[in-house]
Amino acid sequence: MDKSNAVLKKVMQKVYNDRKPLKREIISQIRTETVNDGAFCEVWFMTKGCTHDAEGGCTMCNYGKGYDVDEAAVVQELAAQIGNLPEKLQELIVTPSGSMLDDAEVSEAMRKRIFGLLNHTQCEDFYIETRADSITREKLESLRGCVNAKRFNIEIGAESCDDWILRNCINKKLTCQDLQEAVDMIHAARMYVYLNIGIGIPFLTERCSIEYAKRSIRKAFAMGCDKVVLFPYHVKPGTLLWWLWKHGLYSCCSLWAIPEVLSAFTADELERIHISWYRNYYTDKSKIASSPAVEEENLEQVLLLLDEYKNHPGIDSLTPLLEWQSKGKRQWTRKMKEQSPEIEPDRVRRLYTLLADGFGISGEELDKEWKIMAGTLRQRGFC
After folding, report:
1. How far apart are CA 140 and CA 118, in angstroms?
2. pTM of the full predicted structure?
3. Where along the chain do its domains lie?
4. Residues whose CB falls within 8 Å of the CB of residue 4, separated by 6 or more in sequence, listed in order
5. Beta carbons within 8 Å of 43's beta carbon, 6+ residues apart
6. Angle between the 6-18 and 363-379 helix axes, to the nearest 10 degrees?
7. Residue 303: CA count within 13 A, CB half-sphere
8. Reading across the β-sheet that carries 148-159, which strands appear in turn?
9. Distance (Å, whole) CA 223 – CA 64
10. What pLDDT score does 8 carry?
11. Distance (Å, rounded) from C-alpha 131 to C-alpha 100?
């Protein structure tokens, strides 16, 4: 079976073409915050963008539409940015618009120059983000020893460890087998794997998304991933999520979904499950149309409790979230009990039909793709 969903690919190509590109004048940015009682720093730089995005990419993402850039100019600006970093960092991540190890986005020569800038920066954990299909043994070998860090971590945006969801909800163009092969290569290079798992996946109910996040984390650990990062999705302009949200067909998950997912794991497992992007970190309000939330009167307190878990992942920081009592939380819990924890074929078909109508996908194209999707669900006992 093709890893790509033909309907989603065609839709996402139209979404990409209509999306505004990143601002040309901003070629690098630094974001800092506190994590694990130490300094965290993210260094971002402009590239022409994610190759997968340009081909019709992931349904929730708008990171990747950049420009062909002057590599020398980017490296020069990064040198100034990196030169202003604290001497010691808890965590440092250096990331482009898409995948650090995609040669079509970041050339090998550019990677070497960027990593050369980091020789004198000390940190406990260093990260790069990349797609699983951009990883090779040769690239990993070339990275070893290039930064002064105790741990070199490769962060992979999996979103889910369910092949049907990867293909038909995310349009990831990856399988769990691809993820497993990437994990094995990273470990063979004596590096560490962080796998990103999403909540609020389109075409699923919120409860279903929660249940599959739990299953995905368990599968990630079974694959050998060292840690997992749990992300609730925000609605960003220029994404399919934004189109669905604008037409009343999608809403962000509640922040209560995060502790609900975490509640399924042991104290030891929780120390390996991090959370991120439950807040809107952008200062430019136009970058986010809708965010995960709870009732307004409790929002800031809940965010502070999530901050505490982020800084100290474990049962002690999770317990206050689980024990929280409020009318809004009780209403959310009742709502979740009314929803199905499994994929609902009729719901998915209805949303795909509306999607096809909105993007000019023919009935013949939709029926052809639905036969593939429904056939797989039938094998799993859903149809």
Report:
1. 17
2. 0.95
3. 6-379
4. 56, 167, 171, 173
5. 28, 29, 30, 78, 81, 82, 92, 93, 94, 95
6. 130
7. 15
8. 28-35, 38-45, 88-95, 122-129, 148-159, 192-199, 227-232, 273-275
9. 28
10. 97
11. 8
Cα gap 374→364, rounded to integer Å = 15
Across the chain, mean pLDDT equals: 94
Asked if 197 and 216 count as a contact pair (C-beta separation under 8 A), the reply is yes
CATH of 6-379, one of 3.30.565.10, 3.40.50.2300, 3.30.300.30, 3.20.20.70: 3.20.20.70
Nearest 5°: the CA angle 128, 129, 134 is: 110
User: What distance in Å separates the CA atoms of residue 249 and residue 237, rounded to the nearest whole number?
Assistant: 15
Q: What is the pLDDT of residues 234-246, one digit of tens each?
A: 999 999 999 999 9
Looking at the chain, how many residues does it have?
A: 383
Distance, CA of 175 to chain centre: 15
Q: What is the 3-class SS of the chain, one letter each residue? A: CCCCCHHHHHHHHHHHHHCCCCCCCCCEEEEEEEECCEEEEEEEECCCCCHHHHCCCCCCCCCCCCCCCCHHHHHHHHHHHHHCCCCEEEEEEEECCCCCCCCCCCCHHHHHHHHHHCCCCEEEEEEEECCHHHCCHHHHHHHCCCCEEEEEEEEEEEECCCHHHHHHHHCCCCCHHHHHHHHHHHHHCCCEEEEEEEECCCCCCHHHHHHHHHHHHHHHHHHCCCEEEEEECCECCCCHHHHHHHCCCCCCCECCHHHHHHCCCCHHHHCCEEECCCCCCCCCHHHCCECCECCHHHHHHHHHHHHHHHHCCCHHHHHHHHHCCCHHHHHHHHHHHHCCCCCCHHHHHHHHHHHHHHHCCCHHHHHHHHHHHHHHHHHCCCC
Report the alpha-carbon distance of residue 143 to residue 75 in Å, rounded: 17
**Cα–chain-centroid distance for residue 101?**
17
Calpha distance 339→322 (Å, rounded): 20
Q: For 163-178, what is the mean pLDDT? A: 97
Q: What is the spatial distance between Cα 116 and Cα 23, in angstroms, rounded to a whole number?
A: 27
Q: Kindly indicate the confidence band of residue 295, based on its pLDDT and cuts at 50, 70 and 90.
A: very high
- Rg of the chain's alpha carbons, rounded to an integer? 20
What does DSSP say about strands 148-159 and 192-199: parallel, antiparallel, or unpaired? Answer: parallel
